[in-house]
């Protein structure tokens, strides 16, 4: 054996390498799962219909084409608050199905 005191043995190196490889594999799987969850279609919390996206300026409105609920991400309500009442009414009517955006 060429193992010297104070240095990891060949077996130890292998053990660490295997542990690192497993850790990397787990991290990769976790990140992939997180990405898949992020990219998966969101569903309406009320009726489970797949949500549609309606970009409006810098805001992405998630709306339900079935029950016409609208969901906002954190911070988006504050962004919409800067819109004029007229614009808000226009987009609201489009999303609740009572009007069509031209
Ligand atoms: Zn719905």
Task: Walk me through this protein's architecture.
The structure is a single chain. By secondary structure, the protein is an alpha+beta fold. The protein folds into 2 domains: 9-40; 52-95, no CATH class. It has 3 helices and 3 strands, in the order αβββαα. It has helices spanning 10-39, 76-80, 85-95; strands at 52-56, 59-63, 70-71. The protein has a 3-stranded antiparallel β-sheet with strand order 1-2-3. A hairpin with a 2-residue loop joins β1 and β2. The longest helix is centred in the first third of the chain and has 30 residues, at 10-39. The termini are far apart. The relative contact order is 0.09. The mean pLDDT is 85.
Essential attributes:
3-stranded antiparallel beta sheet, binds zinc ion, alpha+beta, 102 residues, 2 domains, single chain, elongated
Topology summary:
Layout: H1 10-39, E1 52-56, E2 59-63, E3 70-71, H2 76-80, H3 85-95
Antiparallel strand pairs: 1-2, 2-3
Residues 44, 46-47, 49, 64, 66-67, 69 line the site of zinc ion.
The beta-strand count equals 3
How much beta, percentage-wise? Answer: 5-15%
Strand order of the largest sheet: 1-2-3
- Helix content class: 40-55%
Tell me the radius of gyration. Answer: 26 Å
Overall pLDDT metric: 85
Cα(first) to Cα(last) distance is 80 Å
Structural class given helices, strands, pairing?
alpha+beta
